Amino acid sequence: MPASASRPAQAVKRHAVQILDTDKVQGSYYFRYDEFGEHSEAPPHSHRWGHLNYAAHGSLSMDVPTGHILCPPQHGVWIPPGVVHSCYLQHAVQYRSVYLAPQLCRELPQTPGCMRIGPIVKAILADFGARNVQVPVSEEDLRLARVVHDQLCATPLELSFLPVARHPALVQVLEAMQSRPDDHRSLAEWAATVHMTERTLARHCQRELGMSLGEWRQRMRYLRAIDALEAGHTVQHIAYELGYSTPSAFIAMFQRESGLPPEQFRREFCAGSL
User: Fold this and answer.
1) Fewer C-beta neighbours within 10 Å, C or N terminus of the chain?
2) Closest among 170, 147, 148, 164 to 219, alpha carbons compared
3) Nearest to 132 by CA among 33, 17, 1, 55
4) CA nearest neighbour of 18 among 31, 1, 6, 4
5) Residues 202, 212: contact at Cβ < 8 Å?
6) DSSP for the chain?
7) Across residues 183-192, what is the average pLDDT?
8) CA dist list (Å): 45 to 5, 20, 86, 102, 218
9) How far is CA 238 from CA 188, 245, 262, in A?
10) Which InterPro entries does the protein's record reference (predicted)?
């Protein structure tokens, strides 16, 4: 199931998401296709099967025992068998999921996290969705399902697209960056604000985030840009809000992250195109 830890600023009516009972599924694969409206949610629950959750349109996030997993479009959230997870969807999403029987999950990660969805998996999910194949039965469809499984087994897992920190000083830096995404301070300048050396702060970033502070900031800006595209803001407005000196500099960053320019991404992946 999909999920998100963020909560709306004011009370809104929430819509319950139907939870799949995998004990009633025949075979070893189940493919689910849904469109969830904004403010959809599912309470904490688990499945005996593992499953990949993928938003064909809209971003996806989930809460799991180890923390919060956030994935932009073109990524999915992997939940191993038995892991409790919950969701809150602030925006509408076009939802796809691949449920795998426990024996198929032995070669997959045993911790939840974020996976990039490659073109082969996307194409098979699109084909199954167009033909409404939920439980593959024919030998041809079973071969395609096995390809999906093989592709997922070969896909690296990230704990989250935007990791969180534990060290208080790094937490302080990341919170400040999120509150001011247009802030251009360097690693050395951020280190000075928390009374650290540049080298020490860089070491904390690599150990806790698995990336540099600059890469983390770029991912944070990319996710903010997706939210702004969802909200209908212009590319120029988003660029300046995120601290880019020109729209072209923002477009270049966005295309590096998503593989698409912002307006094409908006048409293909934002909920407004549902």
Assistant:
1) C
2) 164
3) 33
4) 1
5) yes
6) --B-----SS----EEPPPP-GGG--SSEEEEEEEEPTTEEEEEE--SSEEEEEEEES-EEEEETTEEEEE-TTEEEEE-TT--EEEEESS-EEEEEEEE-GGGGTTS-SS-EEEE--HHHHHHHHHHHHHT-SS--SHHHHHHHHHHHHHHHTS--BS-SS----SHHHHHHHHHHHH-TT----HHHHHHHTT--HHHHHHHIIIIISS-HHHHHHHHHHHHHHHHHHTT--HHHHHHHTT-SSHHHHHHHHHHHHSS-HHHHHHHHSGGG-
7) 96
8) 15, 10, 6, 17, 33
9) 27, 11, 10
10) AraC-bd, Homeodomain-like_sf, HTH_AraC, RmlC-like_jellyroll, RmlC_Cupin_sf
Q: How far is CA 186 from the centre of its chain?
A: 27
Instruction: Tell me the angle at which helices 213-230 and 262-269 cross, rounded to the nearest 10 degrees.
Output: 60
Residue with the bigger pLDDT between 160 and 202: it is: 202
- Confidence (pTM): 0.80
Maximal C-alpha separation, the chain: 63
Distance separating alpha carbons of residues 53 and 48, to the nearest angstrom:
15
- Token code pair at residue 114: 């974020």
